[in-house]
Amino acid sequence: MKLKISKPEKVLFPDDGITKADLADYYERVAPVMLPHVKGRPLNLWQYPDGIDGKSFLRQQIPRHFPDWIARVETPKKGGTVTHAVAEKRDTLVYLAGQACITPHVWLSRVDRLDRPDRMVFDLDPSREDFAAIRLAARRLGDLLEDELELARYAMTTGSRGVHVVVPLRRSHDTDEVRAFARDLARVLAARYPDELTVEARKAKRGTRILIDVARNAYAQTVVAPYGVRAKPGAPVATPLDWSELSDRRLGPQRYTVRNVFRRLDRDGDPWKGIGRDARSLGPARKRLDDL
Q1: 268 neighbors 239 (Cβ within 8 angstroms)
Q2: pLDDT, tens digit only, all 292 positions of the chain
Q3: Nearest alpha-carbon partner for 42 in 104, 120, 123
Q4: Are 156 and 114 spatial neighbours (Cβ–Cβ below 8 Å)?
């Protein structure tokens, strides 16, 4: 099925001349590597009907005009439910681009077990523009995860300012357990490097330190989808990395864009291709963490 995009000439990125049709073409092309990371996950949709310089809104409830072939899942919330779109195939990503959804966000759990996440995420949020410090913080977090807790660690530039460090999990712990583990781990790391890292959410108390943000591990919270486009000049892309790239001084948070990411993918493929095979239970890691 070849989808028709309404107003394909609509410019979404004014400084770059990137149109809605260009955005749809990007998601159609990236779908083979992106779909394994978003399939089966409820979506939140950041839509920009007038482009990135206009007003935006976050859509959670799927609207009635969305076609029936788009998968859906009803999720509980306080006082009711929300029905989210789910991207099960390429055409869903293309259709969403046609709705001016520049950035899809995904849950850390899948539709069949909403309360059992298979991802744990640490969002390294800088207080100042110093990506070398972010890269170092990610490596230190990764060393703690892999060397001391024996958990796998993956990294992704967010396409904004920071890095996400992602841990694949077996679905043997509920959201509260995962969030508590992430919180305790962040406190241990921040205590080791108190001049560089913090768990203090209030900006006024952070100073120049990097926030280890674990709030995204709460129920129904989302993260930018791998290979999702960000609503920023240049159309940067949230890009999964090979861990060794965190030592590359040339790496920046917005290095990869809709216009250059395919050279990378054609050359190296998706560095997260086998992420699910590295999923582990938090049980043994919890005991190791408690002993630190």
Answers
A1: no
A2: 578 899 999 999 999 999 999 999 999 999 999 999 999 999 999 999 999 999 999 999 999 999 999 999 999 998 899 999 999 999 999 999 999 999 999 999 999 999 999 999 999 989 888 999 999 999 999 999 999 999 999 999 999 999 999 999 999 999 999 999 999 999 999 999 999 999 998 988 899 999 999 999 999 999 999 999 999 999 999 999 999 999 999 999 999 999 999 999 999 999 999 999 999 999 999 999 999 9
A3: 104
A4: no
For residue 19, give both structure tokens: 């149109």
Place of tokens 């681009």: 97
CA distances in angstroms from 53 to 13, 15, 46, 215, listed in the order given: 8, 10, 13, 28
The residues, any chain, with a CB within 8 Å of residue 84's CB and separated by 6 or more, are 42, 43, 44, 60, 61, 62, 72, 73, 74, 75
Domains of the chain: 11-114+221-236+254-270 (3.90.920.10), 119-219+277-291 (3.90.920.10)
